[in-house]
Amino acid sequence: MTDQSTDPKKLFIRTYGCQMNVYDSERMAEAMGGQGYVEVGSPDEADMILLNTCHIREKAAEKVYSELGRFKDLKDAKPDLKIGVAGCVAQAEGEEIMRRQPMVDLVVGPQTYHRLPEMVEKVGRGEKALDTDFPLEDKFEVLKNRPTAKRAPTAFLTVQEGCDKFCAFCVVPYTRGAEVSRPPERILREARELVERGVREITLLGQNVNAYHGAGDGGDWSLARLIWALNDIDGLERIRFTTSHPNDMSDDLIAAHGECAKLMPYLHLPVQSGSDRILKRMNRKHTAEEYLRLIERIRAARPDILISGDFIVGFPEETDRDFEDTLDLIRAVNYGQAFSFKYSSRPGTPAAERPLVDEAEASDRLHRLQALINEQARGVMDGMVGREIGVLFEKPGRMEGQMAGKSDYLHAVHVKAEGIAPGDLRRVRITEAGPNSLAGALV
Ligand code: 5AD
Ligand code: SF4
Prior knowledge:
By secondary structure, this protein is of the alpha/beta class. It folds into three domains: 7-131, Methylthiotransferase, N-terminal domain (Rossmann fold); 139-382, Alpha-Beta Horseshoe (pyruvate-formate lyase- activating enzyme), CATH 3.80.30.20; 388-442, CATH 2.40.50.140. The protein has helices at residues 19-33, 58-70, 72-77, 88-93, 96-100, 116-124, 139-142, 172-175, 184-196, 223-231, 251-259, 276-281, 288-301, 320-333, 359-382; strands spanning 9-15, 37-39, 48-53, 82-87, 106-108, 129-131, 154-158, 160-161, 180-181, 201-205, 213-216, 219-222, 238-242, 266-268, 306-313, 337-342, 388-396, 402-407, 412-416, 425-433, 438-442. It has a six-stranded parallel beta sheet with strand order 2-1-3-4-5-6, sandwiched between helices. A five-stranded mixed β-barrel has the order 17-18-19-21-20. Strand 15, helix 14 (320-333) and strand 16 (337-342) form a beta-alpha-beta unit. The chain is globular and about 60 Å long. Bound molecules: 5'-deoxyadenosine (5AD) and iron/sulfur cluster. GO terms for molecular function: 4 iron, 4 sulfur cluster binding; metal ion binding; tRNA-2-methylthio-N(6)-dimethylallyladenosine(37) synthase activity. [4Fe-4S] cluster 1 binds at residues 18, 54, 88.
């Protein structure tokens, strides 16, 4: 008999896609830790490889198969190596993954990874394991004991999952399921545990995080109420949340941006398009004008807030005129940051049936949109020079003698390291705006 308890098995996880996948990967590693697995930094050393996948655009989903192809040599050299696919491609494609790539041993969706320990046992017996249910139990409760070791000063915390909005292009309502909010007491408990481990900044995550409505003490909690409760946790210095839908920006949440000291002046508020015709076809349920009015109200509450967004160009039937409307909206908002994508047709979504915009035209629009966004983001960064702002330091900078952190507005900031440790929140005078980061000196 081999003594496996003295010889920990090695787990390698590769994470694709959004921040929620980053959070999920962390929780999966914790769940596997209970099975005697330790995480390693390279697939070559691993006894088990897990790909935590993203299905949002075709390119992201296809990456999984090319990555699996690359593991073939590893599996040939080490036949005991187990390979698993988790996340949204697992949810969307299920068994099909094992048909396309028979060396895959395990397929687990985003709602069932608390069952990984049993699944891994099954795989250990040489069987295949597949679970893409939407179970009734709360996976986070099953996983509840998080480790106590010290960790990085910033952390993600999932508070809400899934989406009921059904934008015509989006797979999220199918891969992550219906909107579900975690109860506030459990979130607050997890937040306190994170703070005890050295966390100073928490980013609340949800596909529709501002639709949060957790059943808690005194009834239904809004996201704003949750933020105010987090604001009372000693040792927690900063709160952020992502990602939001314009129609769920409630009055209390807007007000919190002006009143809650720990809520950072940064808001990711995707609009996708500035054309009312396209917004309607996207099933976004708001107009460009309504979005602009909303931004005005948010800025009235917190004038210095940095606005970030998401855009899709080349949505089916998008004309030049529609695209010009998007550029006009961007000019009106002045974004500090934005993510932009060429439309990718996703099987099973309503828009997948519609005629596509010419590929070269879509690429051209993407470049033009990105040039405008870059110019705005540049301007916002340049505007930081001379200002005194908060920086949470995370790690040594790339250059000798520097520390790197993030400003209140989420810009990377480099400062001379003297006397600064990871986890310190300090005031910094910004002296310079580089291409990707700011530089400054402690005040
Ligand atoms: N094609 C291109 N971009 C998409 N997004 C979501 N679905 C698609 C799609 N089918 C983008 C949206 C969303 C972000 C997370 O990804 O902009 O806000
Ligand atoms: Fe997808 Fe966001 Fe629309 Fe929900 S609100 S369907 S997650 S783009």
